[in-house]
């Protein structure tokens, strides 16, 4: 446990030392999204027949920030360590692959939640959403951050340079995040695109998280929980296997 805690502490310090970039900047980005989309569409779009568009948008932006920053934390840390050559100092320690997994994923969850909380606090000046089922808010925030933090571990192990890491984020994580219903309800889409949206696991994270605020969602939160939980177990099994075999970090 002491080894896991030490690596976790090191990873937390890594992003906290540059918190203006890793925490404050994503909060500002989310607020800009809210200002632009909220100003343009407020009063023109009513979601679930009773919820203002700005209130509807806030949980989506919070969850989007959680997911993107959880992924960025673990992926950037591993890639940076590989490129700079500092990974060897962690490899010299007797830490198990489980210690690596929990330290990287745990620090990613913490960063994602900190950014999400910052976004939520700032957006309260624009609209105050309901808290219909707060337990679901916590569950999906934790699961979503853990899933993306685990994906970040896999991406970081796979990438050998920052260009590959950027490609993974720009062509996979970013499109799936933006097409997950952050800015809209999928009920407003044509039937074909509704079907496509249901194939996107990110949609279930956003939808389940939003259910915690409004008590309404496009699919049952239990279905979302089953899909997100299963996805995390699958990617976790892959990440632990890659760490155990030393994929691209032991030569």
Plain-language structure description:
- By secondary structure, this protein is an all-alpha fold.
- The radius of gyration is 18 Å and the shape is globular.
- It has helices at residues 2-16, 19-41, 53-84, 87-91, 97-123, 134-158, 162-178, 191-197, 201-214, 221-245, and strands at 46-47, 51-52.
- Pfam families: ABC2_membrane.
- It is found in: Cell inner membrane; Membrane.
- Belongs to the ABC-2 integral membrane protein family.
Secondary-structure blueprint:
Layout: H1 2-16, H2 19-41, E1 46-47, E2 51-52, H3 53-84, H4 87-91, H5 97-123, H6 134-158, H7 162-178, H8 191-197, H9 201-214, H10 221-245
Helix pairs in contact: 1-5, 2-3, 2-5, 3-5, 3-6, 3-7, 3-9, 5-6, 5-10, 6-9, 6-10, 9-10
Which features would summarize this protein structure in a list?
251 residues, two-stranded antiparallel sheet, 10 helices, ABC_2_transport, globular, mainly alpha, 2% strand, 2 strands
Say how many strands there are. 2
Percentage of residues in helical conformation: over 70%
Strand order of the largest sheet: 1-2
Can you tell me the residue ranges where pLDDT is under 50 for at least 5 consecutive residues? none
Q: Write down the secondary-structure element order.
A: HHEEHHHHHHHH
Q: In one word, what is the shape?
A: globular
Structural class: mainly alpha
Strand content: under 5%
* First-last Cα distance: 27 Å
Biggest pleated sheet: 2 strands, antiparallel
Rounded to an integer, what's the Rg over CA atoms?
18 Å
The average pLDDT score comes to 88
The total of helices stands at: 10
